[in-house]
Amino acid sequence: MSAPVIATPVFLIPESAPFTAEQRAWLSGLFAATLAPQGLGATALGGGEAARLSAPSGPVLASNDDAPWHDPAMAIDERMKLAEAKPLAPKLMAAMAQQDCGQCGYNCADYANALFEKKEERLNLCAPGGKETARMLKQLAVEIGAAAATPSAPAVVESINLGAPGRCREAPLEARFAARRKLNGAGSEKDTWHIDFDIGASGVDYVVGDSFGVFPSNDPGLVDQIIAMLGASHTMEMRGKTLRDVLRDDVALGAAPDALFELISYVTGGKIRDRARALARGEDPDGDAATLDVMAALQKFPAARMHAEAFVDALEPLQPRLYSISSSPKFMPGFVSLTVDAVRYTVGKRKRVGVASTFLADRVATGAPVKFYVQKAHDFALPADPLTPIIMVGPGTGVAPFRAFLQERQVTRAPGKNWLFFGHQRQMSDFFYKEELDHLRETKVLTRLSLAWSRDGAQKYYVQDRMREVGAALWQWLAEGAHFYICGDAKRMAKDVEAALVDIVAQHGARSMDDAIAFVGGLKKSGRFQADVY
């Protein structure tokens, strides 16, 4: 059966309407987001499709091959500077977070190309990029719109093909929340959980390296506080449900979007309006812009009186969250495991939490249904040859996919050697899956286990320090054809680990620094260096 086709209209405020150009642009975006079917979009294009689209006879599209900005550790202003002389599609790609995480339903290059070719209208799908990516895409969208039809032309209708159920964010299925258990011991500063889902009834399968998309809900306590700030009734009907349900399940209550500040500027005056408008432009008039979530924005502008429906329409949709799968389907048929850090922090006197992480750690009940999809990995998988040795670097929750890799190698009796680098704060309280890893060492599945604890000594000690310490052996594994994997923080850990690897190649491979950099680049191009970063 072919995938269903859904039409999404593009809504425009005509130039003859009694609004300024700035107001027309804002209202057009608002109505498009509000009136278009929620949660629809094109499915991801594979690398081959992207290459086909960038044939010499067509427009210049984005690709990973010639993108010097394709580095998740690089700041957005640096990426945009590298891309400033490039055509529009590569510029759009430079605005992305460069993680190829798949959370948007694409990889970075294909999301840029879908926007450029007007196959995708949504500018807010890059969750890792956050507001800075959304703002940059909004600026670049003016260039996309330069080739649009005139206001007198009929509305454009884009056909969108949905993917298979459970295989993309546009067509989720339901899993059963099976269990949770805390992974930290007494004295830990972290709050990390092992989560199990039963997906057996869904009929969806996966392979190690894939990610699991979870559709969370907002904290009901936060929802009720916001409704009280609005002076609205939680039973008010909106979008076919109650206001409370919409705020809990449909819209994001994290970082306050520019559209909310724009709305506040329309319902206030004087200096209050000027401050709200400055925030909508991405400025920081009071030095607190980075801390303003939706609740904080309402608290900052208590004089703003807005209708609850206009308020909701100014918010972003609540996005699914992707987690690296930490189980093998061969080891646990019908189940998916995740390894999740519950995000909790304080700003001023107010406690804040991560929406998806605390949904999994605190709020969802055992046995409850949760909407999910499986995101196919983008160049993150075990070697095809089971004889190939693998080196895995995964501190903290970065161990997740490598637990899955080891389970897979155990069940399939793969003869290749396996080396895991794991690190965290304290050995006594933060050694995740210690019993499992000890068993894998005893049974010779895990050939080497190298550990690094950053808070157990007078000096902080990380996985990259441990790598340098055993650099000669690590180089020998690479010389034998080992594949190298990283999972974890994109902006710090992954960058530091790659730098350590370059140093090891230079020192123990008897190469110049330039040659060592080229060698690691060659590992990436050949698929022997793979990263799952966030």
Radius of gyration: 24 Å
| Amino- and carboxy-terminal Cα gap | 35 Å
What is the makeup of the main sheet? 6 strands, antiparallel
| Overall SS class | alpha/beta
Give the total of beta strands.
17
Proportion of strand residues: 15-25%
| Shape category | globular
Task: Count the DSSP helices.
Answer: 20
Low-confidence stretches: 1-12, 29-56, 147-161
Q: What fraction, in percent, of the residue positions are helical?
A: 25-40%
Q: Report strand order across the widest sheet.
A: 8-5-12-3-4-9
Supply the number of structural domains. 4
**Overall pLDDT metric:** 88
Give a written overview of the molecule:
The protein is α/β, with parallel strands linked by helices and 534 residues long. It is built from 20 helices and 17 strands. The strands form five sheets. The protein has a six-stranded antiparallel beta sheet, covered by helices on one side. The chain has a five-stranded parallel beta sheet with strand order 15-14-13-16-17, sandwiched between helices. The longest helix has 16 residues, at 130-145. The protein is globular and about 70 Å long. The two termini are 35 Å apart. The model is unreliable at 1-12, 29-56 and 147-161 (pLDDT under 50).
